[in-house]
Amino acid sequence: MQRILLLLVEDNPADIRLVKEMLDEIGASEVQLRSVGSVSEAGAKLTAEPFDAVLLDLTLPDGRGLETLEKIRGSAADRPVIVLTGLGDDRVALRAVQDGAQDYLVKGQFDGRTLLKSVRYAIERHRAEIVERERRSLESALGAMDQLLAVLGHELRTPLASLRLLSEYMLKHEAKIPSEYGRYLHSINGEVVRMTDLVNNLLEAARLDSGVSQWQWSDVDAHKVCADALELLHPLLDGTRVTLGMNIDPPDLHFSGDPAAIRRLLVNLGSNAIKYTKQGRIDFSCRRIDRSGEPWIEIAVKDTGRGIPDGVARRLGTAFAVNAGVTGSSDTGGTGLGLAICKGIVAVHGGWLSVASEVGKGSTFTATLRADLTGPEPLPPDLKIIREAAT
Ligand code: ADP
């Protein structure tokens, strides 16, 4: 039985005795009763000892009626309070409950069992209230984080877009500049593309987490999204010896979905493939498959890079948690947002993401999606991207 340290704030010795006798009578040995006769003494006691609940008479030498409750709640901090009222004081008792008391008992109208039940109930309800309060404050902190990410993302996107345009314009006229400047320019352009990617992923994560459906559901032209993704990835190839390939089967493959989201999926998988493949091939493929007579789409990004060890592969797709041992080396550190977002995008398209990888040989990430969904599927709660990271 859980011990209960109960503080009785009562100045009438007969009432104190009565409460003690009631508890003795029912053999409530788990309750340790202490009593004080005034609000000020109660304040001192509550600071000194970890009381579980307070039983409060509303008429004390230094407090009358609801004012007593107010004073005690100031010093009782987060302890549940049960008020003791006189016969006919129902209005005061109800006001006390509205003002934060957990319960009230009318003097002369309760016995040991009612008292014990009321104390236990008050403690439990108070605990539940604390948990709920904490949950709400956590929710609002996470909501604020989503908002911060969204605002930050938007603020960064504009200057990055200008930088990207400028560096690409200069690269077009590369022949006119000294060769070492050309090298720097390629680096600048690559970094800008990487930063843009990160910002886009932050925005996408906030969008997925907001739960607001902002999906632009329409026809997806597989060839077009793959080609767009490859073009976006091109600047990242600088400094690698990697060839990119693309295979669409059938060549005029179309399906239902959000084209921008599918492009993001490909950009995320593709930029990882480039990041971890210093030389070799990266192939994008998109094909229609049949699963139990239903049309599905399989999008795969296959690389011949360093591969992913088993233990690491199991933890992929958890935002911000990835660097805790997953990324492994500082040269390739990241946020872990990329695959978390891919998982979200794939889930919204009614499918799943899988990975097959062999260390030293390469990895293949495969997204299997429904081809004929008429709108986005709701994102499962366990896929909440930013929230997932916070646990
Ligand atoms: P980030 O790259 O920002 O850390 P991701 O979620 O995109 O986040 O990837 C998580 C981790 O998975 C990477 O840090 C890397 O360790 C591993 N990874 C992802 N794709 C590949 C790949 N194609 N080859 C090797 N490792 C990969």
Describe this structure as you would to a colleague.
This protein has 391 residues and is α/β, with parallel strands linked by helices. It has helices at 13-25, 39-48, 66-76, 90-98, 112-172, 179-210, 222-233, 259-275, 310-313, 337-348, 385-390, and strands at 4-9, 31-36, 53-57, 59-60, 63-64, 81-85, 103-106, 218-221, 241-249, 254-257, 279-291, 294-303, 352-358, 362-370. The strands form 4 sheets. The protein has a 5-stranded parallel β-sheet with strand order 2-1-3-6-7, with helices on both faces. A 5-stranded mixed β-sheet has the order 9-11-12-14-13. The longest helix has 61 residues, at 112-172. The radius of gyration is 32 Å and the shape is elongated. The model is unreliable at 321-332 and 384-391 (pLDDT under 50). Adenosine-5'-diphosphate (ADP) binds next to α8 and α10.
